[in-house]
Design brief:
elongated; 6 helices; alpha+beta; 49% helix; Alpha-Beta Plaits; five-stranded antiparallel sheet; 20% strand
């Protein structure tokens, strides 16, 4: 019973007044500093987004998105440094010799290194993704991962050194480790392109179809609601493919980053109405399998 008996509280009072108080202050200081860094990071990203909203949409598409992603990464790195430093100072304060942990930490680090190769690969890949500005916050991307399969497509919501988080058109949140990415298709870099293939009957006068499509493109460019999304008037590329029963005529429109889908839907509706007025039959207006961002 004497062995299991707890020492009197009075013996802990000197420790609590000395080292114990220091431990509490170190932990409290680390938590407060981490919260301040998180608050500051949120303020910076909010300010970046606010300035981007007030500036030209085409200019902000790269500069603002890169600064937003960089601010998120710097906030994450700062939090890691704060907590790591707090642990180091805490161990030294309570009297545990940090130098004596160097050898065990080295052995543990080597063991973790072999087991955490994928994490290290993710961090290195994330570093190059951000520094090379392959994509950033708000970009619409299609990511191919190791092992093939269907690529993950969505809007980037968060980029860290380890993962990329994006949201699909269906509202699903997709998380991809950066080290598993083998191919990235950025659908909103600098500018985008809406590509529409208009199928008409093989016997239709193609010249007349081209004239109608040019008129539709000019009307869309002159529309006050659609004009801000277009960089220039949609152009008619001409006959894209021939078939036994139909001919595909391609229309191309350069748009602001990420606006190619909205512009494409609007142009399809305008083309259908214009063809009905002109008596031109069209069964389906199809979008090609790939909608690129470069010519």
């Amino acid at each position: 019973m004497d062995v299991l008996a707890l020492p009197p509280v009075s013996e802990f009072l000197p420790w609590l007044r000395g080292r114990g108080l220091g431990v509490v202050l170190i932990i409290l200081g680390a938590v407060l500093l981490a919260r301040f860094v998180s608050w500051l990071g949120n303020k910076v990203t909010t300010r970046i987004d606010a300035k981007a909203t007030d500036s030209d949409a085409l200019v902000r598409s790269e500069a603002a998105k890169h600064r937003h992603s960089l601010a998120q990464v710097l906030t994450w790195v700062a939090l890691v440094l704060i907590y790591t430093s707090a642990v180091y100072v805490l161990l030294d304060w309570i009297g545990i010799p940090v130098t004596g942990l160097v050898a065990p930490a080295t052995v543990l680090g080597v063991g973790l290194g072999f087991g955490a190769q994928r994490i290290v690969g993710d961090v290195l890949a994330g570093f190059f993704l951000i520094t090379e500005r392959q994509y950033g916050f708000g970009d619409v991307v299609s990511i191919q991962v190791v092992g093939g399969g269907d690529p993950a497509t969505g809007t980037v919501e968060d980029v860290t050194l380890r993962i990329t988080r994006m949201r699909s058109a269906n509202g699903e949140v997709i998380t991809v480790p950066n080290g598993q990415i083998v191919k990235v298709v950025n659908l909103s870099r600098d500018w985008a392109r809406a590509v529409i293939d208009v199928p008409v009957a093989a016997g239709t006068d193609v010249t007349r179809v081209n004239d109608v499509l040019r008129a539709v493109g000019q009307q869309a460019f002159d529309d006050p609601q659609l004009h801000p999304l277009l960089l220039d008037a949609p152009s008619v590329m001409g006959v894209e493919s021939l078939g036994l029963e139909q001919v595909n005529v391609r229309v191309v429109a350069r748009t602001l980053p990420g606006k190619q889908f909205e512009v494409g839907r609007d142009l399809r509706a305008r083309i259908v109405l214009a063809f009905r007025r002109e008596g031109i039959k069209v069964s389906t207006i199809a979008e090609p399998a790939t909608t690129g961002v470069t010519p």
